[in-house]
Automatic annotation (TrEMBL):
PANTHER family: GLUCONATE OPERON TRANSCRIPTIONAL REPRESSOR (PTHR43537:SF24), TRANSCRIPTIONAL REGULATOR, GNTR FAMILY (PTHR43537). Residues 14-81 form the HTH gntR-type domain. This is GntR family transcriptional regulator. The keyword Transcription applies. It comes from Sinomonas terricola. Gene3D superfamilies: GntR ligand-binding domain-like (1.20.120.530), Winged helix-like DNA-binding domain superfamily/Winged helix DNA-binding domain (1.10.10.10).
Amino acid sequence: MPALSGGPRPANRQLLADYVYQELLSSLMDGRLEPGSGIGIDRMAAELEVSQTPIREALARLEATGLVRREALKGYRVAPLFTAEELGELMDARAVIEPAIAERACAHVTPELRAELEKAVDDLRGAPTGPTFAEYGAYWEADERFHRLIAASAHNRFLLNAYNALGGQVQRFRFFGNLGVTDAEHAIAEHTEILAAFESGDPSRARAAMAAHIDHVRDRAVKDAGSSPRS
């Protein structure tokens, strides 16, 4: 297993847990942990100079994203490659769920939500999109935050649960694409159109803008998957 990046370790317990999570996530995204490989908790703890506890906590969080899997009596492994069939099913599910979420959220839009969505789009515009996760991680965080804010504002706990389940698989696809950010210009324009719908308070426009965004994301994802070094 290639070495983790390993930076300065914070002293606070919660900050330490977050630090370990980010270190493991970076190792996954940058390809230092390969699909299907085993994850040695002892070795990771030694490399990051921490106890096993924050390593186990980080792996449990990563399991929820679909990036790692826990196997009975075997421990954790990096999830297998994302197949073309899984990608199609994921995008089909997003096309069903996220436009409906956007429509409902826009019907309940508040000035606070508009401001938070605007900040997320501004953060997207200002985020770097370099080749490593340390460089493009802020971009993906702003992207995910934008969609999560909308999902959390739909006033439907079951739709939110469905979105959260999909969100983890989106992370998994991004990992196995191993392409960083390839569509920033298009994605920012599409997020801006969704934001405009929320600013106008038009739920049907929000639904259409989200549906168009997911459709374009699907097309770009299929194209990217074909050129991925891991495909």
